[in-house]
Specification:
alpha+beta, two-stranded antiparallel ribbon, 4 helices, globular
Length: 102
């Protein structure tokens, strides 16, 4: 049985559409009982201006607020994802350093 990461890599190799890849992620999240999900990817090149790709199914109002408030810089889920591939259970403690986001 392949891991979800292997499945995702297989999908990305067979399509050029980031929306198709996200659609698969969204279906997997919904099958686990989640209403919303997000996927972010930071490509470290060029070093002077790394590319960041973010896709999600949150409301446009929340997406706007997230961007305006600069939550990307303080979001502990983003920080965790940059350091680890392990799951992260959202708790109040995880967001202790970013209460306004919690």
């Amino acid at each position: 049985m392949r891991s979800w990461q292997e499945e995702l890599l297989k999908i990305t190799e067979s399509t050029d559409s980031e929306q198709e890849v996200f659609c698969r992620i969204e279906m997997a999240a919904k099958s686990m009982g989640f209403e919303h999900c997000a996927y972010g990817l930071r490509v470290p090149w060029p070093l002077s201006n790394p590319k960041i790709l973010m896709v999600n199914n949150y409301s446009p109002l929340w997406q706007k607020r997230y961007a305006q408030e600069g939550y990307l810089l303080i979001d502990p889920t983003v920080s965790h994802g940059r350091k680890s591939q392990k799951p992260l259970v959202w708790t109040e403690d995880v967001f202790s350093g970013s209460r306004q986001l919690w």
